[in-house]
């Protein structure tokens, strides 16, 4: 019973399948035997910690890439929404948004003039013809044309997906952090338990042979 | 990690599941608040930039065309329109700041409570300060 191998991870998992770390309520009970070999347990704890750390680092990367991706989507969405706003301002002469911008009619009608980044530190001017279509880069060398409202819907849903995936990643990271803390506390307690046991053993032996001193 | 004194070891043996959960929450909140603070810093910088911009725009002529950044490109728009956009951008930054500030406050109060509980139980055997 003493040396039976115990899997460190319990069967309980979080929603993304990350296993829970066990909490040790009582070290004696967990090790099962006062002379149990602490080394094996400590080593399996180390392995578990290493696994959690590995998951943590890969999730941290994932999180960083999502944190980068979200502002990108938002920027694109901003622009498409701007284009849509202009079109609406044109079709409905009296739009709520443009109530106090009525005197601006000429600029709403003309083509949009922009200065855009052609390359790093290089800017060029461009006029956008009035358009109801944008092309969205979908990845994998594919670009599709969308009507403005469809583009807004698509981008909004992509933003939502990215946001919820980021939230999940953050949740996972916090979960892993908790498991890491549990394992660290476990390690410390088993270690201290061992120190204490050795000292008791030593004291017992010293008591047995008082002349030894 | 340092070696524990003998009398503290006995203390250490009494970690209950409840304590463990408190330690977990504390560590989680500690991490969370650090990230929130980073984000708040970024947003504050953005807010400052927008505030500067708003004073600049007030000085600009009504008929003047200003370059306002939308997404990655600058749009040439008339000053009143730019002011409107700026107001919208400012409102969105303000909203994000206040959401984060509330979260940070929550973290802090919870951490304070946990600190009191954990320190009263574990004393010097635990260290919760940076």
UniProtKB/TrEMBL annotation, chain A:
Q: Which UniProt keywords apply?
A: Chaperone
Q: Where is the composition biased (Acidic residues)?
A: 97-107
In Gene Ontology terms, what is one molecular function of this protein? tubulin binding
- CC per GO annotation: cytoplasm; prefoldin complex
Show the segment(s) annotated as Disordered: 1-20, 88-111
A Pfam family this protein belongs to?
Prefoldin
- Lineage: superkingdom: Eukaryota
Task: Supply one GO BP term.
Answer: microtubule-based process
Q: How does it assemble?
A: Heterohexamer of two PFD-alpha type and four PFD-beta type subunits.
Role: Binds specifically to cytosolic chaperonin (c-CPN) and transfers target proteins to it. Binds to nascent polypeptide chain and promotes folding in an environment in which there are many competing pathways for nonnative proteins.
Regarding protein family, the annotation reads: Belongs to the prefoldin subunit alpha family.
Protein name per the record: Prefoldin subunit 3
- Gene source species: Hebeloma cylindrosporum
From TrEMBL, chain B:
Q: Which GO terms describe its biological process?
A: protein folding
CDD domains on file:
Prefoldin_4
SUPFAM superfamilies the UniProt entry points to: Prefoldin
InterPro entries from the xrefs?
A: PFD_beta-like, PFDN4, Prefoldin
Question: What family does the Swiss-Prot or TrEMBL record give for this protein?
Answer: Belongs to the prefoldin subunit beta family.
* Residue ranges that the Swiss-Prot or TrEMBL entry lists as coiled coil: 26-63
Subunit and interaction comment = Heterohexamer of two PFD-alpha type and four PFD-beta type subunits.
| Protein purpose | Binds specifically to cytosolic chaperonin (c-CPN) and transfers target proteins to it. Binds to nascent polypeptide chain and promotes folding in an environment in which there are many competing pathways for nonnative proteins.
One GO molecular function term? unfolded protein binding
Q: Which Pfam families does the annotation name? A: Prefoldin_2
Q: Which GO terms describe its cellular component?
A: cytoplasm; prefoldin complex
Question: What name does the UniProt record give this protein?
Answer: Prefoldin subunit 4
Which keywords accompany this UniProt record?
Chaperone, Coiled coil
């Amino acid at each position: 019973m003493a040396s039976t191998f115990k899997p460190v991870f319990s069967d309980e998992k979080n929603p993304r399948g990350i296993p829970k770390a066990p909490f040790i309520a009582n070290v004696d009970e967990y090790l099962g035997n006062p002379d149990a070999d602490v080394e094996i347990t400590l080593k399996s704890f180390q392995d578990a910690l290493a696994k959690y750390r590995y998951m943590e680092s890969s999730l941290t990367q994932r999180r960083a890439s999502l944190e980068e991706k979200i502002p990108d989507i938002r920027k694109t969405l901003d622009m498409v929404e701007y284009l849509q706003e202009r079109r609406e301002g044109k079709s409905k002469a009296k739009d709520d948004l443009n109530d106090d911008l009525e005197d601006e009619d000429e600029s709403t009608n003309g083509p949009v003039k922009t200065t855009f980044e052609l390359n790093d530190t290089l800017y060029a001017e461009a006029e956008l013809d009035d358009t109801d279509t944008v092309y969205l880069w979908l990845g994998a060398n594919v670009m599709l044309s969308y009507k403005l409202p469809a583009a807004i819907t698509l981008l909004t849903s992509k933003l939502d997906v990215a946001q919820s995936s980021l939230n999940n990643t953050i949740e996972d990271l916090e979960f892993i952090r908790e498991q890491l803390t549990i394992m660290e506390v476990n390690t410390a307690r088993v270690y201290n338990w061992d120190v204490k046991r050795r000292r008791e053993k030593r004291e017992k032996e010293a008591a047995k042979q008082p002349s030894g001193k | 990690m340092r070696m524990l004194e003998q009398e503290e070891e006995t203390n250490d043996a009494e970690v209950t599941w409840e304590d463990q959960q408190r330690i977990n929450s504390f560590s989680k909140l500690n991490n969370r608040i650090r990230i929130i603070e980073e984000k708040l810093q970024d947003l504050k910088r953005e807010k400052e930039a927008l505030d500067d911009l708003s004073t600049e725009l007030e000085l600009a002529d009504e008929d003047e065309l200003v370059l306002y950044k939308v997404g990655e490109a600058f749009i040439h728009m008339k000053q009143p329109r730019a002011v409107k956009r700026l107001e919208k951008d400012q409102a969105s930054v303000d909203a994000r700041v206040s959401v984060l500030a509330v979260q940070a406050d929550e973290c802090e109060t919870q951490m304070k409570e946990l600190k009191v509980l954990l320190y009263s139980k574990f004393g010097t055997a635990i260290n919760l300060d940076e």
